[in-house]
Amino acid sequence: MGDNEMAVFGLSATEEELYRHFLRNPGTSVDDVHLLLHTAGTDAARALERLRELGLLLPAGPEGRVVPADPEQAVSHLADRRLHELHQDLRRVTRARHVVDGLRAEQGARTAAPQGIEQIEGLAAIRGRIEDLAFFAREEILSVEPYTRLSPENIARSRPLDLRCLARGVVIRNVVRRCALSDPPTAAYLRELTASGAHIRVADEGEAGERLLVYDRRTVLVPLDPRDTARGALLAHKSGLVANIIALFEKIWAQAAPLDAEPEQGGPSPLSEMERQVLLAMCTVGKDEAGARELGVSVRTYRRHVADLLQLLGAASRAQAALLARERGWV
Mean pLDDT, to the nearest integer, of 190-197? Predict the structure, then answer.
């Protein structure tokens, strides 16, 4: 047997080999198929039964003859089934906070600080803890983010985590600085989050000067040095301190303005004529080769323009780039 390429969909090597056999020999009998594939009869019988259950083998009259399901339909069905299983696994994982609590207890005195405060050192460790806290959040995430812009890398890292939280029903309330809206990719990402259900407000620089994160009103993370967030962070679990920081957040939130009330950073398109034509091609032409041919450029040049446009718009896909460009009146 060759590589088990369909293992990603949950098929064993024997099941895949049987399905491929009937693709090559549709309408043949299942009798003695184990001899053709050099596998045990019991293994082949189990594999045949599962392929029938999955709808990959269909009866074709008497004498045990079968035909395989169309490959495209089969893969689509298997992918949907596998994604459903993964979604169920994810739901079980997100409810397993008690496992993390137990593992934290194993760390002993280092994390069980007498004041309920833990110091985290290093940017990688801080990012890892933020991802853990967001992943296991159940109810609400509050944050004040004083950045002036988000890099494409930051957006790419944050998008799946934020959207996954929103999809799970976690309430996200976020305050950002008004100047962040001057950066098109950052503004586009914030509006994307709003469209997905996040509540975002904008504040002047003096009102959103320091970063703070609150998870489920039980855990707070603040930078050790607001002027240099890479130095480290403090993670607080003590109820009194958490309550005070939540009160500070609510004050900042009350003074901030809803993102929806802020005007879009529109104005004339910043695109060159070639970029505008590439953007139009992205909206109307399916393949890069066709788009490049239509514009009279090489495929390599066309793809370079596409990559530049995705970065400029802060988009994760071509479809999203086209949507954002239309919203801004660029096409």
Answer: 89
